[in-house]
Structures are given as C-alpha cells and as structure tokens.
Automatic annotation (TrEMBL):
Limits of the Diphosphomevalonate decarboxylase-like N-terminal domain: 17-190
Keywords assigned by UniProt, alphabetized: ATP-binding, Lipid biosynthesis, Lipid metabolism, Lyase, Nucleotide-binding, Peroxisome, Steroid biosynthesis, Steroid metabolism, Sterol biosynthesis, Sterol metabolism
Superkingdom, taxonomy of origin: Eukaryota
The protein's name in its UniProt record: Diphosphomevalonate decarboxylase
Lineage per the UniProt record: Eukaryota, Viridiplantae, Streptophyta, Embryophyta, Tracheophyta
Organism listed in the record: Quillaja saponaria
Amino acid sequence: MAGESHNWVLMVSAQTPTNIAVIKYWGKSDETLILPVNDSISVTLDPGHLCTTTTVAVSPSFEQDRMWLNGKEISLSGGRYQNCLREIRSRASEIEDKKKGIRITKKDWGKLHLHIASYNNFPTAAGLASSAAGFACLVFALAKLMNVKEDESQLSAIARQGSGSACRSLFGGFVKWIMGKEENGSDSLAVQLADEKHWDDLVIIIAVVSSRQKETSSTSGMRESVDTSLLLQHRAKEVVPKRISQMEEAIKNQDFPSFAQLTCADSNQFHAVCLDTSPPIFYMNDTSHRIISIVEKWNRFEETPQVAYTFDAGPNAVLIARNRKTATLLLQRLLYYFPPNPDTDVDSYIIGDKSILKDAGLEGRTDVEALPPPPEIKGNISSQKYQGDVSYFICTRPGRGPVLLSDESQALLNRETGLPN
Ligand code: DP6
C-alpha cells in the first residue's frame, strides 16, 4: 500500500432507492445464499421520497470494519453482512489516487478495514422495506470505492446475499429478479425490464398504517411458509411463472388493467400463503382490508381498474394509480375515509410529492372532513370514517436506480477521521 502517511481516508457516497414488488418473492430454496423459490418483479420508488444514503470509507488507520445505521453503531458480525463484504472484497481492483499519493492493490483490500455509515430518509419504524435499499446501497457504494468492474446485475447477486429484495434496488424503473438455476446462486440476479421513464404516468401513494403489533420478520415468516404451506409450493410452480410473463407483457405495453389485476391478485395470494402457514401469519390488519375494499369498490364502479394495491410483510398499503388525475381522485377518497387527527394538518399528513396534493385541491385545506362521499358509495348510509387509522401518506412515483453522490457535503463520514459526522 503506497502512501506517505497512514492518515488518509478515501471515501465514496451513494444513494439507492427502495422497491415494491408487484409479483412477490416469498420463500427461499437456500437460506444462506438467499435463493428464491420463484422469480419476482418490482417497481423502484423515487429516491427523492424514499431512499438510503451510504458513505463507505477506507483508511490504514481504521482498526476494524465498523458500521453506523441512522447514527447508531451496529454490529457487522452477522452472516449477511459478512457474505456481502467477502464477495465485494474478492472482486476489488487496484486503485491509484496520484494527487493524494494513495495506491491500493488488490491484495491490500483484503487487509484494509472499512467504515460504513447509512441513513434512511424515511422513518424505519414505519415498517417500509429499509433492508432492500440498505444492502443495495452498501454493495453499490463499496463496488465504487473498491473499483469493482462488475455490472449492476452482477452486483445485484451480491446485494441479494444481504437481503433478497435488495437485489432489485440496483436498478430504476421496472425490475425482474430471475431466480436462476445454478446451485451457487451465480445466475440469481436482477435485470431491468424498463427504466423509470418508460411508464411515467404511474403515481404511487403509500398509506402508512398505524399498528401496535410487532410483525413476524420476512425472513422467519417465509421460512415458516416454506416449511408448512402447500399453497406456497403450488404458487411457486404453477402460478408465478405465468404471472411473470403476463406482468412483463403488461409493463411493456403499459397495459394498466392487466398490471393492476396481476398486482392485486399476487399481493392477495402472498397473504393467502401467509394464512396457509402454520401457525398462520397475519400481516394485514382491519385498515389494510378496508383500503382493499375501497379500491375494489371504486374499480368495479368505474368498470376498469383505476388503482392497484399491494401489501408486503406489514399492514401498509402501496397504491399505484394509473395517472395523476386518478391519483388526485384516490387522495380525495383516502382523505374522506381516513381524515387526519384534529391535531394534524393535511400538509404533514400527506408527504413526498406535494404536487399531487395541489392538483387535488387539497393543499393547505383545513376542512377535509367536509369532503363529499365518493360516487360509488352514494346512497349507502354505512360509509363510516376511520380517523387516526392511517399515520400518514407518502406520494411518490417510479424512480431511478442507485447514483453516486459527488457532493462531499452529503457524505455521512468525516473526511479526516472517517467517523460519523
Ligand atoms: C414481502 O427481502 O426482506 O417484501 O431475503 O429474508 O431479507 P430476506 O427477505 P426480504 O423479503 C421481502 C418479502 C416481501 C416481498 C418482496 O419484496 O418481493
């Protein structure tokens, strides 16, 4: 390792999006390599609203690998972190920074220690998939720091070993995780189906549902499903392969009715597999079910799907509207059924892309309780309201893949010490 002194710190920062599956990954055939029992397809969410930022640093003065998540030091001893670090180190190449007088050979990378700081721009407690963006960002940033020559798909196979869904966050737009055939997992990786500009009418609204319940983690939930659910076997073999090709077609043709029908059916089947697990797993709650009913009723009333819904391993609803106009109508409905608590104003109740709020004529409004009932329930007296059952809404859209942050002011580690800022 060439370098006059030992006090240099070299670092890289990156930003990586999260993603929502429209054809779900649920079940592994290999727990260590994280190999799935079926292919899956996701939409990448705009990192402007939901993302992870990670800074990785290397210095001869670091005594061990260390990591800080949202400002708190966490252990890197877990197998998933260790697997990602080992895989990425084994692909490192020589780098040279003549200005700083630094040269790191391939062999040096095995001996040097790393500091990693990661930050989510959304509350971890909200139960939004943070491990997907987190592992994708870790792998992407380390690959840049260590001059790894692999492409995004090859990097996705490393991120996969941190968390399955993370492999789909290496790309923007619409992404497929191909389960692969190789026993060593080398062909279990993500590919981009279409970029975020391909179908940019879509608007995504996430309802963060209030919940006091501690949920079963995806990792243990899917293990229990693999062990006990016959429906999971049927789903993986017979149902998903057909849905994958239909979903690819729907995305290619921007065919919203097919896209919505497949998305809703696949979310419902995933939750049916959870119910078919012994003991059964309940991720959705009454509020989740209510949101499904509202969307189903509206879609039926319009005679063609306006909105698709999908739920991961928790009660939050991810709603995909066919265009901005539909999104404004959706927001009005959501506010009608789930008005904010009296102490919350609309502007802090609906976050993310505020322009939808403006289009819906809801910006700064203080009288949302006066919104008229939607036409599909007119004449139906049982239109109850559920104030307080949704914590807040996030408006977003399909977004881009990982990017490097060249602006040093966005780094999470100090340039001189390599410790969190
Ligand atoms: C329901 O990727 O969190 O969100 O691979 O064990 O880390 P591990 O699980 P994880 O599972 C995600 C499951 C899901 C569906 C999906 O994202 O496809």
